Amino acid sequence: MPLKTVKHLNYQVLPMPAERYFIDEEISLNHKKFLKETEFHHLVHVMRTRPGEKIELVNGRGTLAQATLLDIHKEHATLSIDEVTEESLHPSRLILAQAFPKPDRLAFILEKGTELGVDEFWLFPGHQSAKKEVFSSQQERAKALTIAAMKQCGRLTLPSISYMPAIEKWSPIQGQSFFGDLDQEAPLLVNALSSATPNYPITFFTGPESGWSAKETAMLKEKGVQGVKLHHHVLRTDTASIAALTLIQHWLMLNKAS
């Protein structure tokens, strides 16, 4: 049987597959891979895939593979890699710096932020955050949420999640950066974006449910982060993050198209 060539594609929206699975390793043409744990359970017990059927694999690093299920064992499934597509990645970096919110709001932000193309999540304790740390079990759940969202929305890269100290311990922020500001004199985010060209990385800072402290606002400005308004209403932390990401991504898409 002749070897199939590796395909390359520019960034595009891919159709949502019926069966797409995540494997955290490099994927090579005509090699065998083993699906285990959560993904194995979903393959066998939820989707009830049978030997000989086709599925898709992603590794969160820009690779999409077509695979055939060869065998099902007690704790893993054996797959044969039939075709590999590599996405040509854009050099942009979009970062959401999110002060710790409540767990349900954080789950929403991680899921929707992944769908909206966030490359990195920086999570940190805000002065007025109800919680000051994220435990290992919560970190595992956070990664699982981004994996599920990546598979669902069709993207091929998995955003990273970093757990940062409080803002006062940060160095000056590189690239373009903004934070949600309630100051009536702050410009609208859309106006701040319209007068600029993308300078990566692009970072948006969102406070916790109780907002920024006056000290945090001053420190953000000292570090070169521009305060902007998103709406004339006060937005909840998850609403603010998603609204900001949507506006920034729309601006980036317009710039890429021009």
Describe the protein.
It is a single chain. The chain has 6 helices and 12 strands. The chain is an alpha/beta fold and 258 residues long. It has 2 domains: 20-86, Hypothetical PUA domain-like, domain 1 (Ribosomal Protein L25, Chain P), CATH 2.40.240.20; 94-255, 3-Layer(aba) Sandwich (Alpha/beta knot). The strands form 2 sheets. Strands 1, 2, 3, 4, 5 and 6 form a 6-stranded mixed sheet that branches. Strand 7 (94-99), helix 2 (103-115) and strand 8 (120-124) form a beta-alpha-beta unit. Helix 2 packs parallel to helix 3 and helix 2 (103-115) runs parallel beside helix 6 (237-257). The longest helix is centred in the last third of the chain and has 21 residues, at 237-257. The protein is elongated. Residues 1-12 have low confidence and may be disordered.
Protein traits:
258 residues, alpha/beta, Ribosomal Protein L25, Chain P, Alpha/beta knot, 2 domains, 6-stranded mixed sheet, 6-stranded parallel sheet, elongated, disordered N terminus, Ribosomal RNA small subunit methyltransferase E, S-adenosyl-L-methionine
Number of strands: 12
CATH architecture annotation of the largest domain? 3-Layer(aba) Sandwich
What percent of the residues sit in helical stretches (DSSP H or I)? 25-40%
Q: State the end-to-end CA separation.
A: 44 Å
GO cellular component, one term: cytoplasm
Main location: cytoplasm
Family: Belongs to the RNA methyltransferase RsmE family.
Domain Ribosomal RNA small subunit methyltransferase E methyltransferase: 91-249
